[in-house]
Amino acid sequence: MRPLLLSLFSFFYTLQLHAQDLPATRAVAGKLSSETFWGRGYVRQGMEKAAIYLSAEFRNCGLQPLDGNDFTQEFGFPVNTFPGAMHVRIDNKTLVPGKDFIVFPASASLKAESPLGAPDSTGNVYAIQAHRLMVSLRDKLTWAVSREQTNYTGLEILKTAMPQQPATIELDIESRLIADFRAANICGIVKGTSRPDSLLLFTAHYDHLGGMGKDTYFPGANDNASGTAMLLDLARFYARNPQRYSVGFICFAAEEAGLLGSRYYTENPIFPLSKVRFLINLDMVGTGEKGIAVVNATLHPREFAILQQLNDQNNYLPEIRQRGKSANSDHYFFSEKGVPAFFIYTQGGPEAYHDINDRPANLTFTVYENLFRLFTGFYRQLMN
Fold first, then answer.
1. How far, in Å, CA of 186 to CA of 184, rounded?
2. Distance of alpha carbon 229 from alpha carbon 193, whole angstroms
3. By the number of CB atoms within 10 A of the CB, which of 74, 128, 303, 328 ranks highest?
4. Which residues on adjacent β-strands are paired with residue 126?
5. What digits encode the pLDDT tens for the residues 164-196?
6. In terms of C-beta density within 10 A (0-12 exposed, 13-18 middle, 19 or more buried), how is residue 312 classed?
7. Could you tell me which residues come within 8 angstroms of residue 73 by beta carbon, excluding any fewer than 6 positions away?
8. Which residues contact 364 (CB under 8 A, 6 or more apart)?
9. pLDDT, tens only, 280-305
10. What domains can be seen in the chain, in order of their start residue?
11. Which residues contact 313 (CB under 8 A, 6 or more apart)?
12. Residue 287, SS3?
C-alpha cells in the first residue's frame, strides 16, 4: 500500500476506533433520570421500566443476549418502599419531602400528632417513645434503600428547615415492605472475531433510590445514569467494531440495595467467570474536573500501569488516582471470585449524591471523550 494511502487508512481507522457520542450519552442519562423512570427504583415500576428500555437499547445497539436467548437475568429480594403518604408538619410549617426531610429507609408506617418534647444533649435528636418515632437534625440529607422494615419510624430533617424551638410534630408516612421484589440484570455481548471465549466486560448499575411518597423521586443522574449511558455508547462502538476478544456489557439492578445484582450474577454466571480477562465497572462518571479514581488499582499493578501510560502519552485526564480494594460498587463480588476488575469513577464538579439534586443539568461530562478513548485504548492493549 502506498504511504499516503496507508496514512489515510490509519487516520480514518483511528477516528473510527475513537468514535464516541456525547450528545447521545447526555440524552440517555437525561431520559433515565426523568420522572418517567421515577428514580429507577421500587415504586411506579421505575426499575422495571428502565430494564425494558435498556433491553431495547441493547438490541438497537446490535448486541446479542449474553445467554443467547434473553437480555434479562431475573432475581428477587425484599425491599421497603414508600409509595403513598409522605406528610410532615412541624408547628405551622409543612416540610417538603426530599428538600426539607427524608424518612429513614427502614421506617414503618406512622400517622400521628404529638409534642416533640426536648432534644437529647446534642440538641439534634428527638425521641418520642409513645409513637416509636425518632427525629434527627442533619446538615445534609442523604437517602438510601433498606431490605427490611423496622418497628419504628425515623425522620431526618435539614437543620435549616427546622423552626426555632419546635413544639409539635404531625406526620403521615406510608411504608410497604415488598417481600419478593423482582428485578433483572441486563446482559449483552459482541462476539470476538478470533477469541470469542475470552471476555472483556463493561458493567454499570442502572438502578437508583426510586421515590419517597407521591411527589418526590431521586433522579440519580450521576449515580448511575451516567455510567449506564456511557456503557451504551461503548456498546454501540464495539458492535460497529468487533474485536478479537468478546466484549460484554452488563447493567446491574439493585446495586443501591446492597450490590445484589452483581452478587447474583457472580453466583449464577452466564459467561464463565474464569474466561473474563478484565472488567471495568462504571459508576458515577458524569464529571471529571479532577480526573478519575481507580479502585483495585493496587491489586492489578500491571493493568494500572497500562492505564497510567496511556494517560501520560495522550494527556487524557488531569489525574488518575490509585485506590486499593473496596466493596463500594459492583466490581466487588467479581474481585472476590478472582476476576480482575477496576471500578472507575470521575472526580470533581458538582457533588450531589443520593439526594434530589443529582440531576442531568449537573452532569458536566468534562473528560467524557478522553475517558472513552482511555477505556478503548486500555482494552485494545490487553487484547494485544
1. 6
2. 26
3. 303
4. 135
5. 999 999 999 999 999 999 999 999 999 999 999
6. exposed
7. 67, 184, 185, 186, 187, 264, 265, 268, 270
8. 286, 287, 288, 289, 349, 350
9. 999 999 999 999 999 999 999 999 99
10. 19-79+179-383 (3.40.630.10), 85-173 (no CATH)
11. none
12. coil
